[in-house]
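Hi P.,

Sorry for the delay on this. The queue was packed all week, but I finally got your sequence through. Input first:
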Amino acid sequence: MNHFHKIAARLADHGLDAMLLTGEANRLYGSGFHSAGTDGVALVTRKQNYYFTDARYTEAAERHVQDAVIREVGHGRGYGALISEALVEQSAKAVGFEDAYMTVQDYERYRKALSCQLVPASQLLWDLRMVKDQEELEAMIAAQRIAERALADILKGLRPGVTEKEIAARLQYLMLHYGASDMSFDPIVVSGANGSLPHGVPSEKAIQRGEFVTMDFGCIYNGYCSDMTRTVAVGFATEEMRTVYGTVLAAQQAGIAAAKAGATGREVDGAARAVIDDAGYGKYFTHSFGHGVGVEIHETPNASPMNEQPLPAGAVISAEPGIYLPGRLGVRIEDVILITEDGCRDITQAPKELLIL
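Then the structure:
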């Protein structure tokens, strides 16, 4: 799965002759081939695509990168030299670069090495990545199913005495076991009073009866991320716990009902936020309703109070309101939804009614 053709088709609209892909996420999106960090560069021109890498990845790139010329860097012939040669071959003068990803040091290095105009063009990639095609969606659904399968196993052994770290470690093992290539992010597992930390780090704290356990996790399959959060009670749930949980679930359902192509991120967030505000917990919902998901776990578009742009059909976003009562408890429920012309499709299948283990 690569998107060289989609990028090339947009170059003229941005006044570009070529697009330089140096960041890991955009390089994967363009070429369909993953290499870590800065180990590789892709160049998309109006007529020809190139993929540059070193000897560690050359054979793998030749197997996996389609519709591109593969060239290997070596001593005395670094990325700058090879890219410069390709730009001359294609008579490319205006070259887009990832201003939101590239370091100042790398920018200066390319500016000196390349005889071209470097044009900030992160937005070109963000606009393309925002709308998923069928192959991308299938990869994300597969990643979601892996995460859900891991959750089902975790719930069988979640009991008092098990630590947050143990749950987080087992989640990672299970997702890899069921086919993931990596984690979308380090799993968040928090319980009891730790639950008021939206991005709390798993600790040696043991789970106790009468506590919530919040698990936020996801994995990567074929280059694409899944993301989900489930909060469960252990032993029993107090009236306050049930009230907070019910409020978060109702808020999530309201946001999902408001999500459709043409609705702004602010409107979707507002639909969920109104439910939490009306229940008196407004100041305890401290983040936005959702964020885009794709080759990165956080990408555009966002369903936040700051986003007044309409959501496009084909965008995939998280739906994750939460309430966090400092020093007491927290609840977050997260699905991932596909925005459609007449609404949205929830691609998360795991149950989300209050579960008491």
